[in-house]
Amino acid sequence: MIRLLIKDIANIERTGAGTDPDFPFLRHFSPYAGHSWASGSSRGNQGGQQESTPEAIQAWAAILLWSQLNFPEYGENADLERWAAYMFASEARAAELYWFGLTDVKEFKPHLSFRQYSLKSDAVPKPYVPSMVSQVNQNEMTYQTDFGNPPALKLGIQVLPFTGSSFYLGSVKGNADAIVSGFLDNDLPKLADGGTSPSNKDKILMLQALTENHTADPRALITPAGGTSPLDSWRMQWEIPTPTYDNLILQDTSRGAMYWWIDTLLVHGVPHHGENDANSTSAASFRNDRGDTVYTAYNPGTSPLLVTFADGNTLEVPSLEYAHEKTDASSGSGGGCSSGPITQWMPLLLLPVLFLLRR
Predict the structure, then answer these.
(1) Rounded to whole angstroms, what are the CA distances from 292 to 2, 169, 262?
(2) Angle separating helix axes 201-208 and 255-268, nearest 10 degrees
(3) Do 256 and 293 meet the contact criterion of CB atoms below 8 Å apart?
(4) Peptide bond into 218 cis (omega under 30)
(5) Rounded distance, CA 160 to CA 170, Å?
(6) Bond before 161 cis per omega within 30 degrees
(7) Could you give the CA distance from residue 116 to residue 128 in angstroms, rounded to a whole number?
(8) Residue 242 and residue 247: Cα distance in Å, rounded?
(9) Would residue 234 be called left, alpha or beta, if left means φ above 0 and alpha means ψ between -120 and 50 degrees?
């Protein structure tokens, strides 16, 4: 059944397989556009439309993980893994460019369609104010959602749900800070005429934990005061009494998940694997504000795995286990390597297919 579901959304066969049901090649993913079209091939005069890039990215990450865990039992999963890695990397890069407008290529940035209209002119009587777009259509880019107008909803749908596959939001130095700054300094004060957001404060705080300069609020959220932390008072959206925007947790996460995510990033630091590549899609490194580097990897295979990072550090990962090591910046020495069952660290480690983006 799982293999059938995968073929439905990510069929990598260009022709029918005889006895297997025939599905369209890659279904909603467009190699030409570099991302998915959530509305299929058409949406009236708008053509294809894509709102939530992270939902698609999570799908490719899940397929990548599944293909790794089931290879070499099923030989075709080697091809599936490569396609999943490609779709993940391409969609993550498309999100950076077309939804957030993040690029170091100065010649390209002005030609991002929503950046072109940021200054008022005779040709642009009403400049584009938002720092991002929340919907990309084949004939337009817009700052709207299908479910509400507040800026927190528009940013939230571009980052949720937060899992170990979400580190692409911060793997390029400065990207997460730019996204948060765009929201806090521009979108929120200038475009909050949509009213108070009913949700997504939890997602904003989790995104801030990915940054270098906006960690004060997530740190305060999990820091105990008088025996309890502010996070203890947060509630899932269906709990009674009904939570407000200030303490509401959407159904895709929980208090435990929020604490794990924020605490892990505050301790280990921000993702560093955009600059410190590895020879495995299941490895990542993090660097904290002291300059310490944490190396992590897991091994979904049945043989020991040696992971080599671009800075020369290596991790030996036993079969079906994880490994992590901390290097102290002040001494340059390692803090020792430990390993264990993959269930504890697996959510941290799926993202690093982003090394494909740099090659």
Answers:
(1) 40, 21, 18
(2) 20
(3) no
(4) no
(5) 14
(6) yes
(7) 8
(8) 10
(9) beta
Distance CA 150, CA 145 (A): 9
List the chain domain ranges: 1-144, 177-269, 272-358
The answer to whether residues 95 and 53 touch, using CB atoms and an 8 Å cutoff, is yes
Q: CA-CA distance, 37 to 30, in Å (whole number)?
A: 7
pTM: 0.89
Residue 285 DSSP symbol: E
Inter-residue contact 356 to 274 (CB < 8 Å): no
What count of other Cβ atoms lies within 10 Å of the Cβ of residue 314?
16
Written as tens digits, the pLDDT of the chain (359 aa) is 888 899 899 999 887 666 566 788 998 899 999 999 987 666 667 788 899 999 999 999 999 999 988 766 677 788 999 999 999 999 999 999 999 999 878 777 666 777 777 777 777 777 788 999 999 988 888 898 988 889 999 999 999 999 989 999 998 999 999 999 999 999 999 997 666 788 999 999 999 999 999 999 999 999 998 889 999 999 998 888 889 999 999 888 999 999 999 999 999 999 998 899 999 988 999 998 889 999 999 998 888 999 999 999 999 999 999 999 999 876 655 555 565 554 444 444 444 443 334 34
Tokens of 197: 């957001």
Q: Report which of 225, 203, 97 is spatially closest to residue 155, judged by C-alpha positions.
A: 203
| Cβ-proximal residues to 236 (8 Å cutoff; 6+ apart), any chain | 243, 249, 251, 254
